Task: inverse folding
């Protein structure tokens, strides 16, 4: 008959549950992994499978009871680390969606919205289109595997311990959020410039020929020019999306190192 002591059972449980919590935190927030179309069983299964693989490679874990206050603190800490890593990539996709919203509003497609189950709200059609394109680029460059690799490496860089996380890491996360508007504007600037010149031309045309109904001809012209420019610039968006995703992966690594500042080295 096999008998287990409380210490052995606690050691086996913490070697699975603590890393599983960090992994599920990332899967819950990260793009593609955290999409609502992915069943919850698949997410939990992927997290458990990954935790079982990396459990033997983990650094020595603290000798803390799983149900103790310190054990619950570590559990919450691992969840925050996983969410922080996934949130960086979520911000990257938010920048791409912001570019789509800016372009859509400039083209006059502000009314073309539909319910997005991922964000649980109304989303512009162009923002959704840019998000799908960025998601395809994300999968094409194997960024989902790179993100899992960064998560696995984080257990060596930021091991499971009772030490609190550094505040500098959370400051880096908040600072990275400022890239949403900056990157969104950079992606949308070419189309904004063309549409601005189109609106200026329509304004001059209205002044020179007041009898023209600008509301009747302005919208189809702006929409048509926007679609033509979008079609011409679309091949250049994929490399830009790849560059943004690569920067997001680098940002996740820097955040992990920043969170480690207070941990023993």
Result:
């Amino acid at each position: 008959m096999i008998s287990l002591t409380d210490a052995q059972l606690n050691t086996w449980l913490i070697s699975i549950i603590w890393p599983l919590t960090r992994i599920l935190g990332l899967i819950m927030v990260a793009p593609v992994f955290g999409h609502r179309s992915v069943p919850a069983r698949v997410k939990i299964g992927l997290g458990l499978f990954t935790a079982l693989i990396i459990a033997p490679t983990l650094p020595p874990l603290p000798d803390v009871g799983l149900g103790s206050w310190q054990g619950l603190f570590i559990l919450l800490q691992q969840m925050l680390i996983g969410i922080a890593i996934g949130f960086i990539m979520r911000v990257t996709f938010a920048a791409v969606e912001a570019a789509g919203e800016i372009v859509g509003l400039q083209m006059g497609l502000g009314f073309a919205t539909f319910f997005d189950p991922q964000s649980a709200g109304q989303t512009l059609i162009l923002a959704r289109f840019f998000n799908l394109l960025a998601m395809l680029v994300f999968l094409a460059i194997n960024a989902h595997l790179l993100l899992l690799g960064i998560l696995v490496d984080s257990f060596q860089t930021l091991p499971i311990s009772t030490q609190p996380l550094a505040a500098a890491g959370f400051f880096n996360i908040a600072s990275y959020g400022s890239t949403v508007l900056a990157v969104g504007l950079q992606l949308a600037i070419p189309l904004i410039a063309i549409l601005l010149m189109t609106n200026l031309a329509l304004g001059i045309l209205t002044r020179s020929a007041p009898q023209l109904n600008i509301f009747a001809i302005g919208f189809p012209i702006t929409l048509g020019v926007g679609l033509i420019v979008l079609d011409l610039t679309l091949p250049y968006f994929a490399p830009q999306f790849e560059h943004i995703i690569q920067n997001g992966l680098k940002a996740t690594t820097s955040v992990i190192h920043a969170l480690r500042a207070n941990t023993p080295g």
Q: What stands out?
A: The chain has one domain: 6-262.
